[in-house]
Amino acid sequence: MISSTSETILSIKDLHASVEDQEILHGVNLLVKEGEIHAIMGRNGSGKSTLSKVIAGHPSYKVLSGSIQFKGKNILELEPEERARIGIFLGFQYPVEIPGVSNLEFLRVATNSRRKELLKSELDTFQFEDLVKQRLKIVEMNPAFLERSVNEGFSGGEKKRNEILQMALLEPVISILDETDSGLDIDALRIVASGINRLSQPNSATILITHYQRLLNEITPDFVHIMADGKIIKTGNKELAIDLEKSGYDCIDKNTKEKEIAK
Amino acid sequence: MTQSNTVEEIVSQPYKYGFITEIETEKIPKGLNEDVIRLISAKKNEPEFLLKFRLRAYEQWLKMKEPDWSGLTYSKVDYQDLVYYAAPKQDIKKKSLDEVDPKLLETFEKLGIPLSEQKRLSNVAVDAVFDSVSIATTYKEKLAEHGVIFCSISEAISEYPDLIEKYMGTVVPINDNFFAALNSAVFSDGSFVYIPKGVECPMELSSYFRINSGDTGQFERTLIIAEESSSVSYLEGCTAPMFDTNTLHAAVVELVALDNASIKYSTVQNWYAGNEEGVGGIYNFVTKRGECRGKKSKISWSQVETGSAITWKYPSCVLQGDNSIGEFYSIALTNNCQKADTGTKMIHIGKNTKSKIVSKGISAGKSKNSYRGLVSISPNAEGARNYSQCDSMLIGDKASANTYPYIQSKQPQSNIEHEASTCRISEDQLFYLQSRGIDFEESVSMLVSGFCSDVFNELPMEFASEADKLLALKLEGSVG
């Protein structure tokens, strides 16, 4: 499994970040190594989605202090597109609709920008169609979705599959999947989860941001982190998620309160 | 979207058509009076009826006032300070391209419009107009085999005076408006197209207008006649060098479609727009109108307006024939200090006439972009239908967009639908594209292309990608 000599992919230290002048992250620490699957759980508003957007470089989110390193390099100065090209992938909780832009062309331009970084040749329309048809199978997606505008009129499940399709095409080093399971029925959840499993590589890593245990029944995490009030307050293994499912977030709140009182 | 690399390439380029061709030009003295009009007419060896036409128009023009209802502000043109005729010096009648000044051929080649036999565009016939005269028309012979006439309007005046006398000024009367009257008095050249009965024009026809002189007004005149059951697709392109003075371009375009005929008229307008502070640029004050005279005839305008300091035009359709169809697809992009007031008029006269308007306005920088349109349904136009969709996109917070739809219906059995929207490029859309590795400027042009896709789909294939590149180019540095 995971050896201690695995290379560190993502290292976040004491990260404080704000949006609209309100501090949301109050000192996040996270270490992700090759081959690992991390799950970050927590209530709404605990800062999970903020963390994912800060890693991907959303311009509305400001880093106040702390650091984010990707393979040992500071990425805070990089534009979102530069982060994407070096292999950071964010699967959106709410994928954005882009009217009038063909999904196929969007996927091709995105794939080529990543390939350029990897010093691979650019794919023309025909070459790309071959690649995309093959990757479509991973998410059992109907090729008709390629002809439509990006995410426009897609159902919730179709949008999420389209996210995983992008992950399959971009072959990221680290994938941060923000609530990929939300809004999916059980069949769609299985398809998406099996897609994620098939795409995980020994030299890549995945962070699953989720509310519920049910995704973790399909994808076994190596680490489970509980986030509350802009911090990771507890880290454990798969069992932690199961406990959480049984006893709920209130229990965590109580535990932390007790700890604080004990201090 | 076109290929990503070409978009990138183009984004980093300034106005690349701003060069001036050094060529000996024959100009008449500045100013406008009856003698000047007689001189222009004489230079072109025009028949008497045309001189009369010009003089009548001039007489009307003198009585007219420059309109100011549009709210466009610009420093008024001094009509006595303009040159009304400028032509590159060469033998008057050039029989073949070999006799055309190589500098002119070079100019058009630089503009991407090669004219010579070996290099010219396949399947597109081109009429190249330089300042006041037509330089060359390609594929004339091939078109003649089908009975199609495609030549400069000057040539048409001497070769086909009957057609000119019959049609010119019947769609846009000489006293239609101030600029149309001026054009009718002094027009220099332009294109003429005649498609005979039952002929589907075998290739795209295209005119390319180039302004070279700084102090010369350009007044071209285009007339397209599609006889019964014929069809044609025509495209015009326009560029000009960069001058810090404003140049007036006041064209008149008239289209006539008879029974079952169809005319598709596309424009890619990229006149020099002035610099970032709004100094210089073309005043593009144009009257374009088509008449669907015949039953089941169809006229479709599509335009991509990216250039000019000021664009002021409303390509319109008069739907006279029963069951005739008018269409207007427009993209108007303004940046920096550009102003555009453009739209269409759909005049429904015949029964069951249909019209469709799709307008996309994009305003960036400090520019002002207005859609102004009229849908008019006359009492006889039973069963008339119109659908209009006007969308505006704002880039940055200093640009403005307006929509002025005028609707006049005097026929209760008609149906008019109008939709309008305004949007900004959203940060979330941009971030989504960027987070997939697509850089900022390309993301913007992708969003703009997407916004315009309904109209791109209406453009002839090769020009759609050209227009797309043009938009990307114009948006350079407009965001952020």
From TrEMBL, chain A:
GO MF annotation list: ATP binding; ATP hydrolysis activity
InterPro entries: AAA+_ATPase (IPR003593), ABC_transporter-like_ATP-bd (IPR003439), ABC_transporter-like_CS (IPR017871), FeS-cluster_ATPase_SufC (IPR010230), P-loop_NTPase (IPR027417)
Keyword annotations of the record: ATP-binding, Nucleotide-binding
Location of the ABC transporter domain: 10-254
UniProt superkingdom: Bacteria
Pfam family, one: ABC_tran
NCBIfam families in UniProt: sufC
Similarity comment: family membership: Belongs to the ABC transporter superfamily. Ycf16 family.
Protein known as: FeS assembly ATPase SufC
